[in-house]
Amino acid sequence: MNVYDELVERGFIAQVTDEDAVRDMLSQPGVVFYVGFDSTATSLHAGSLVPIMAMLHLQRAGHVPIFLTGGGTTMIGDPSGKTEMREMLSEAAIRANGESIHAQVDRYFHFHETQAVALDNAEWLLPLQYILFLRDVGVHFSVNRMLAAEAYRQRMERGLSFIEFNYQLLQAYDYLTLYRERGCVLQMGGDDQWGNILAGVDLIRRVEGATVHAMTFPLLTTASRAKMGKTAEGAVWIDAERFAPYDYYQYWINCDDRDVVKFLKLFTFLPLGAIARFAELEGAELREAKRVLAYEATQITHGREAADEAAAAAKAAFGAGGDLEGMPTTAVAASELAASIPLPNLLAEVGLARSRGEARRMIEQGGAYVNDDRVTDVDYMVGENDLTKDGILLRVGKKRFHRVTVA
Predict the structure, then answer these.
(1) 236-252 burial string, b = 16+ CB within 10 Å, else e?
(2) C-beta separation of 381 from 344 below 8 A
(3) What distance in Å separates the CA atoms of residue 249 and residue 268, rounded to the nearest whole number?
């Protein structure tokens, strides 16, 4: 199967400049393509996995990915999908974020072992001479056409800063630069970037007289209409330090039944034929499909060992044997446990609640457990009597666990 057709069948494609031309182009290996990620945080999150997985499918088909961080564009901030101007980060913070993201995604693309390239657009955007840039690039942009774009039109009523108005020019210039220096002929991104990506296609046509292409991915929400990669507790980071592999595994295994097949297509490399059989499952049988999804997704992001540990810890947490070593664990001092710790304090300390107040509400509502025993007393003190050979197993709700051990 042509890799383009596989992307279509898996649900990756929202819009494309010329479907037949892109399919033909991708039928031969060696196509250079890129996706840009602004450096707004130290980590990407699960919502970034749609473009990452699409890039990996193309890489596996013999094409050459450019993973571009936006050290330059993040200095301005993308107005797409935002009702307010983004927070302005310092240049040092943006640079540090980009370096952290490059290190993370090396696990996916193996930059030093393959043709894949990691770049930062600060390399060519920060040295730009503004007047010359406006003469060479700005002259090709119509203000009327830019204002008609969805990203800008949504912001006009609330106010669009002049600095944000430059974002489309800079993103288009990225594509032009990568076309000139790397032979890049395909840009991909989220569907909210369609206007910005087309601006780059048009700029290359005007300046170089060349035809290049664009492809966008759908902006995913879960079946419950939640934003992909978000939970009630916050973002599902791909950085193991910010979001433990066990919690990452749990995010996937706890997905809505209606999302399982869609997520297997998007977030694993399982053959489409193997995924099709899961579409026939319902109820308890679907649990196996969720385990496959959780294991495969965790393995891709954190490696086989972490996936094995997370699966074993999940099995142990639900009383089916297994090893708890992969579960998020916090060690407390023996003296602290001997003196006893208020349960609301402990739930907040280990991250099962965002605050002591929230923890108290969880306990009052019957959603807190110590070693699988429900606790409804907000004054409950966790002490040595709760210690088992595996430590103390805390749970909130049905599926969120944390283990406490003695230091």
Answers:
(1) bbbbbeebbbbbbbbbb
(2) no
(3) 13
CA 197/CA 81 separation, integer angstroms:
15
The pTM of the full predicted model, rounded to 2 decimals, is 0.78
Fold of 329-406: 3.10.290
The CA distance from 218 to 230, in Å, is: 16
The CATH architecture one would assign to domain 3-217 is 3-Layer(aba) Sandwich (3.40)
Structure confidence by residue, pLDDT tens digits, 38-63: 999 999 999 999 999 999 999 999 99
**pLDDT tens sequence across 111-155:** 999 999 999 999 999 898 876 787 788 778 777 777 677 666 666
